[in-house]
Amino acid sequence: xxxxxxxxxxxxxDLQNIDFVEIALIxxxxxxxxxxxxxxxPWLAERGPxxxxxxxxxxxxxFRLLALIVAIVWITPLVIRVTLENFxxxxxxxxxxxxxxxxxxxxxxxxxxxxxxxxxxxxGDWVTVGDHYGEVQSVGMRALTLxxxxxxxxxxxxxxxxxxxxxxxxxxARTLMCVVDFYLHPDHDTAxxxxxxxxxxxxxxxxxxxxxxxxxxxxxxxGTHYELRxxxxxxxxxxxxxxxxxxxxxxxxxALGGMEISAPAAAG
Length: 268
Fold this sequence. Notes:
By secondary structure, the protein is α+β, with helices and mostly antiparallel strands. Helix content is about 50%, strand content about 15%. It folds into 3 domains: about 1-80, no CATH class; about 105-170, SH3 type barrels (Roll); about 180-255, Alpha-Beta Plaits (2-Layer Sandwich). A hairpin with a 2-residue loop joins β1 and β2 (about 130-140). Mean pLDDT is about 85; it is low at about 1-10. This is Small-conductance mechanosensitive channel. It is a multi-pass membrane protein. InterPro entries: LSM_dom_sf (IPR010920), MscS_archaea/bacteria_type (IPR045275), MscS_beta-dom_sf (IPR023408), MscS_channel_2nd (IPR006685). Pfam families: MS_channel_2nd.
């Protein structure tokens, strides 16, 4: 303990040798510079050319980071004796802290290397990662980007590969299956209903005719479950394709005298 205390005393300057006024001026100057840039750049961005708006807005956090780094580098020699031995001590402690802070980033990098060989996704695939479903736009070493059916861009860290089920809807194929569910009261024409729903898919403008259309039926606790499965001509048409089958499927059910009921709540 006494040796550690002695090393700490050698690392930090004596209080009488630390210029607290200069340190305070550096901190205040850094804070003022950040505040000025934080208010000035957005003001200029709103009044300047549209092509420079994103550049100016993106420069605010970059300037803040650089200002903090400059302040830390400036203050450190005022507090710590800069010697080779002290530098090694500080570098070792900083390495541990940085390694702990970036452990998720490193985990994402390792997951990216694993994904290169396992190929759970490729650009153009439609995948579900956690609660997010969309088309893979790009795959980096740390994250992948998804474009959802609502045209949102979602960045997903690759470390999700370790703790999430990855659902790939097409796995490199040029189309994918769309499923529409209907829950009906048991009192209906079970002889004609499957073919009526199948005709709904077969007459859709978005149907891919080279893949099969199927209707699966099962009796559940709440009623008769019809599952209409079909493939759109283009994967990006899955939204309007599902909507078309849903709306016209409901019309076909009413035409045969069927009555829909509420779907059962998902388990869990």
